[in-house]
Amino acid sequence: MTTTVRGAERYADVDLYGALHLTTEASAELIDKAYRLRMREVHPDLAGTARTDQTALVNAAGEILREPTVRARYDAPRAAWSEPRQPTGPAAGARPR
């Protein structure tokens, strides 16, 4: 597969792990297995229905998450999202005096 870093950036706001029903801790072996199983579920030739949007998403997830350097590029901004943040305004539910 020839996935570029640009491909990872294109899907930055999409949960590719969710597309494969995996967590971010999934190993390369598990990603490969999940990819093959999901393709059986969504590929029109195998599933018997036209699910091209899901097929494209699962295919992108497989390409991006299988390649370690591209996966790291995809994971970088997602790691920043999960960092705990300090509240910066009035507490929720607080009443002004």
Give descriptors for this structure.
97 residues, mainly alpha, Helix Hairpins, 6 helices
Précis, in short:
This protein is an all-alpha fold. The protein is built from six helices and no strands.
Question: How do the strands and helices of this protein lay out in sequence?
Answer:
Layout: H1 5-10, H2 16-19, H3 28-42, H4 44-47, H5 52-66, H6 68-82
Please provide a written account of the structure.
This protein is mainly alpha-helical and 97 residues long. It has a single domain, classed as DnaJ domain (Helix Hairpins, Orthogonal Bundle), CATH 1.10.287.110. Helix content is 61%, strand content 0%. It is built from 6 helices and no strands. The protein is globular and about 40 Å long.
End-to-end distance: 61 Å
CATH domain topology: Helix Hairpins
| Number of domains as seen in the coordinates | 1
Q: Tell me the β content.
A: under 5%
CATH superfamily: DnaJ domain
